[in-house]
Amino acid sequence: MSAFVSAVALAQLRKYPELLARMQVNARPIEDAVRACKGLALFREDPRIAAQSYTQLGFRVRPDALGIPRSLLCEALRTEGVPVSAGSFMPTQRYTFFKGGEWKRWVLRCDAPAAVEANYLRPYPGADRLFDHEAVYLPRHLLLREPDARAAAAAIQKVCSNIGPLQRLHASRRLS
User: Mind listing the pLDDT tens digit for each residue in 108-118?
Assistant: First the structure.
């Protein structure tokens, strides 16, 4: 890394505590909107984590409780101008690198390769359910400006308070 790149990185890192504090404050209305909607839930917080970095703001859709699938919720939020993504992080064991055994060529000083292999071959139903049906993520840029965060929170509230028509739409799509 050159001295110039280091200087730029240091200057940017000095601004990070202020940026993080702003994102944490701006995340609150969105988190409150998620908590207020039956069928949505924030991811469980790990008490060992001191501060959320908000690379993305994620939450979970409970399709049975909400009455619509994640895809329809995302469609409704996008209609309201919220750029949501579904799933986001594919479970590690699904990558062909692990499924095909290619990882074996990369493992260094592994005393128990069979244990590593068993780890990648076993099912992870919770991770699969989250990726396939439940996880929704909002991009970081929505947390950088208070008006954007409030607009996202308002959109979540609007969609959740008008869930009946979405449930009927979902039922009609299943019938056709």
Answer: 777 888 888 88
